[in-house]
Amino acid sequence: MKMKKEMDIMLLEFSCSNYKSIMNKVTFSFLASKDDTYEDELKSFSNFKVLRSAVIYGPNGSGKSNFLNAIEFMQGLILNSINYQPGDDISQYAHKLSGDETPSIFSMQFIKNDIRYAYGFSLRNRSVDEEYLYYFPKNRQVKIFERKGISIKPGDKYKSAFELSYEVLKENRLFLSCAANFSKIKEIEQAFLFFKEDIVVYNPEVNNWTEYSMKLIQKNEKIKEIFINILNSLGTGIRDIDTKFEKRNIRVTDLSKEMPDTLKSLLFGETNQLSVKLIYDHFETDLVSEESRGVKKLFEVICPIIDILKNGKILICDEIETSLHESIVWEIVSLFKKAQTNKFAQLLFTTHDTSLLDSKLFRRDQIWFTELDDSRSTDLYSLAEIKNVRKTENLRNGYMLGKYRAMPIMSQNIYSLFNDDKKEGV
């Protein structure tokens, strides 16, 4: 029996400008360079090859998080702008040195179900200024629509397909959002679903996937088995997991007397309470009250990562190492490098963990850096763009020595501050 071919989903490139610390256009790419290292781990599509993962390094305040946040901002506006009401402004986080009329621009190229798409928009004065969507059947560019202000120019194939979408279009709504909800165009739907279902943005300060993970474990024995095997490979000693979602009646008397009455009224009543017991060889523990932050973080991120790997999604993760040992981060990154699945999952993350700067883990075109230029604007570049970097080079040492730039520079030796104070008798 002939096996059904899996449809590819991939992020290829993302660019943005005039967003937070990013003033001039910066571009990240998952497209592989001519480097022949680990070629068997690349994914071929059309006449180019695609990387599975990439990492971004740079000093604090250089714009690493802002760059990933720009992807999240683009995704959020696509998914939510259909709900914007008249008078609602689009939040536009322009660079402090940009002029009032300078647009903020976001663009992305991606693969959805074996078809390449190019989508982008610009914002000016907290409204949508321009927008476009193209796709490339048989490697030939076809216009789906172009936009200027609230004027839409559909492609020849779509001239009579957008009637209802025009009616709901406003200056503060993206046309992709409108057309995805008020048309039946397959290409529009696929482009919208890429942002809705295939890009997963994880921010440790915002996301908490623990409950989601426990529901996956409770419903899917296979995911539970994979999860426990991963925990064992990481040396946690956990043999089994007992999860329960119990209904509990919370009485007003159970809540703190210092809590405002208005808040009490929202909290008391029937609620679902999560109970997670971890089974070791000779004892068990309660995940919430007895386990370390590191173990809790594993429960928060591993199951979603399993789901991302199994379904070929793209994980965007800021500071992946938070509350995790460096060896565990290495193993998580290795999963995207070595996972034997029919799907092609991708990982883009920021980190300060220099132990990951290793040619055993990454090609040169998978390592990226951010730094601030003279105008306090974020610059983004890859190690592949830097000359005279050998394949066998100790990348961690090269980075720490400032060979690739993107390192914090002290204008004065910090110890001299204390020495000066000492001399003055402080």
TrEMBL record:
The keyword Nucleotide-binding applies. Pfam families: AAA_21 (PF13304). It comes from the Bacteria. The keyword ATP-binding applies. Keywords: ATP-binding, Nucleotide-binding. GO terms for molecular function: ATP binding. Residues 50-373 form the AAA+ ATPase domain. Gene3D superfamilies: P-loop containing nucleotide triphosphate hydrolases. PANTHER family: ATPASE AAA-TYPE CORE DOMAIN-CONTAINING PROTEIN (PTHR40396:SF1), ATPASE-LIKE PROTEIN (PTHR40396). This is ATP-binding protein.
